[in-house]
UniProtKB/TrEMBL annotation:
<dbReference type="GO" id="GO:0032259">
    <property type="term" value="P:methylation"/>
</dbReference>
<dbReference type="Pfam" id="PF01596">
    <property type="entry name" value="Methyltransf_3"/>
</dbReference>
<keyword id="KW-0949">S-adenosyl-L-methionine</keyword>
<keyword id="KW-0489">Methyltransferase</keyword>
<dbReference type="GO" id="GO:0008757">
    <property type="term" value="F:S-adenosylmethionine-dependent methyltransferase activity"/>
</dbReference>
<protein>
    <submittedName>
        <fullName>O-methyltransferase</fullName>
        <ecNumber>2.1.1.-</ecNumber>
    </submittedName>
</protein>
<dbReference type="InterPro" id="IPR029063">
    <property type="entry name" value="SAM-dependent_MTases_sf"/>
</dbReference>
<dbReference type="InterPro" id="IPR002935">
    <property type="entry name" value="SAM_O-MeTrfase"/>
</dbReference>
<dbReference type="GO" id="GO:0008171">
    <property type="term" value="F:O-methyltransferase activity"/>
</dbReference>
<dbReference type="InterPro" id="IPR050362">
    <property type="entry name" value="Cation-dep_OMT"/>
</dbReference>
<keyword id="KW-0808">Transferase</keyword>
């Protein structure tokens, strides 16, 4: 690995470490922030899990629903530099969606500080609307493989999760993976998340399992 790649990884890790410290303060109650301003990020062990998974998959194209301050997005970017020998950086593409201007502003700053702004496209808007647009594009040109994502991460409002998944499955490639956060924690989400998991596992073209790491991740593979 070149000195440039090592420097980029170090920059990303520096920002990740700063965000992790902030997250610990928020969760411990030592930092008073409103729900609107809180990070609501994945845990660091979940980030490492994603980095390993994405590197093993040789992932080149990622979609994230729910940017927040960009913590998980930075882990995605980190995996690219970790696995750079296996693909050209010019082909990498991370698209992340959020409808909160304040969170987008913070995420943009974090991406800039980490030196990865060039890898990431932020779409501000309603996730259902954006996913519908992406799905319609695929329906119009189903043979255009460049439109399909290798990996999709769902970490937004829980009310629309089933719709998010049904749209996401139409734009992830065969052999691609969809991961959903918060399937185990917070505990108050469990009833709705149980219904969500039941919805997924009824589909015969999806293989899905709950991974008890962090807040609980549902990992779903599109098998056909």
């Amino acid at each position: 690995m070149s000195d440039v790649d090592l420097n980029m990884r170090s920059r990303i890790v520096k920002v990740l470490t700063e965000l992790e410290k902030q997250s610990v303060l928020e969760r411990s109650g030592l930092a008073e922030v409103s729900h609107e301003d809180s990070m609501l990020a994945i845990t660091s062990d979940t980030g490492k899990f994603f980095s390993i998974l994405l590197s093993a998959m040789n992932t080149k194209k990622i979609l994230e629903v729910g940017t927040s301050v960009g913590y998980s997005t930075l882990w995605f970017a980190y995996s690219f530099y970790q696995n750079k020998e296996n693909h050209s950086m010019s082909k990498i593409n991370i698209t992340t969606i959020d409808n909160n201007p304040l969170k987008i502003k913070k995420a943009t700053t974090n991406f800039k500080n980490a030196g990865v702004s060039g890898l990431i496209e932020i779409i501000e808007g309603n996730a259902l609307k954006v996913l519908n647009q992406l799905s319609n594009h695929v329906k119009e040109n189903p043979d255009d493989q460049s439109q399909y994502f290798d990996f999709i991460f769902l970490d937004a409002d829980k009310e629309n999760l089933q719709e998010y998944f049904d749209l996401a499955i139409s734009i992830v490639k065969k052999g691609g993976v969809i991961v959903t956060d918060n399937v185990l924690y917070p505990e108050e989400y469990r009833p709705s998340m149980s219904k969500y998991i039941e919805h997924i596992r009824k589909k015969d073209f999806v293989q899905s399992v709950t991974v008890p790491i962090g807040h609980g991740e549902e990992v779903s593979l599109k098998i056909r």
